[in-house]
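Appendix C reproduces, verbatim, an entry submitted by the partner laboratory led by Prof. M.T., so that reviewers can inspect both the input and the predicted structure.
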Amino acid sequence: MKKKPIVSIIGRPNVGKSTLFNRLARKRIAIVEDTPGVTRDRNYYDIQWENRPFTIVDTGGFESEVATDSLESSMVEQTKVAIEEADVVVFLLDGITGVAPDDQVIMDLLRRTEKPVFVVANKLDTPRHEDMTANLYELGVDKIFAVSASHGRGIGELLDELTQDFPLLEEYGDVDEEEVPIRLAIIGRPNVGKSSLINTLCGENRAVASPVPGTTRDTLHTAIRHNGRDFILLDTAGIRRKSRAFEHSIERYSVFRSIAAIEEAHVVLLLVDAQEPIADQDLKVASYAWEAGKPVIIGVNKWDIVDKDDRTYLQYQKNIQSRFKVSSKPCILFLSALTGQRTHKIYDLAEKFYRKTRLRIPTTEINELIQKAAIKHPPPSHTGGKRVKFFYATQISRHPFIVVIFCNYPESVHFSYKRYLTNVVTEAYSLHNVPVILKFRKKKASDKEHHEN
């Protein structure tokens, strides 16, 4: 299948890269704040313009004068890598403040590449501001696009020229389910090693990894191919307690973004720190994912530095199993993002669970299973001793996996009986770690039984 072009947006801090990224994506993906350096990593998103698909990449701000071991140094490295992997580069300037020393450094860097570069002056909110682009030509470029990312001015003209040589959508051919990239969200509390794990899985520094908690603020989309299968890794900000996270607006957006990433994902990896007991907050994060119908893998990171004896593994596993109530057989993977120990198994597990969520059960088959279960263990009686009867069941969704059971008294189906039937379906189709959602509805005269093949 033909590869979509990659367009990287680069520039010094606070010139509006994330605002432009969000404008092109038509949704708030990168966090926008009037603070330099808010975007620290690369962020990917697939879009199309005039039937021409491509991938946009948002990067951290480039600052040439930084210490080699600083977080900002990592951001500079990320920018350089984003240029290397791009097919087209958008070099964004602040059209109001003019050319800064770092702009000259970036321009010198871009002259060494043979890739198309579109120089764009941002923050030109009105036509009268466009005269301010004259001073920007000291960079030695032939054309500068005047835009306002926040208002949308000039974006259409920029995209027309930027995409004119990109392939049309129909040139890519049909995409079957086996070619859809598996979206894996990596979630957890701050500083448990999410970005380090991304880097290990990718074999390069895709995300800024730092001992400073909360280094990742955006949800970062990283495309990777493993054993012939495409994946998109979603690296999320650490989910903190709301009382702490909501103290600052950037942290607030990060929490919302992490929850949104769970919704977007096919599979969720909850990463916890092996040096600490699994916390209530970890279990709440897992519940976000489970309630959204996402398979959950519990990754116990930093296992290489834990003092162990022959009982440590079983004790830790038992502790998780006793507290992770939503699954009777939680998938637990003991790993090390630093050494790579067992990290290769993540891809296999994600693909295994993805395939399970693709399961479609014929209506006749699910009906037979529910009826047999009801005969073996009849449901509790309705008020007044009336019997609860299940008329028929049908699967209405695969991801999340939802089965609707039509009956005469849905309100009388007790939680414990719902769990019994859920376990029946789970065991029958080996759907452990895949949330099975049963919904009970009252059968109406207008309802007709649906048969799915």
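The chain has a mean pLDDT of 80. Additional entries are available on request from the coordinating office.
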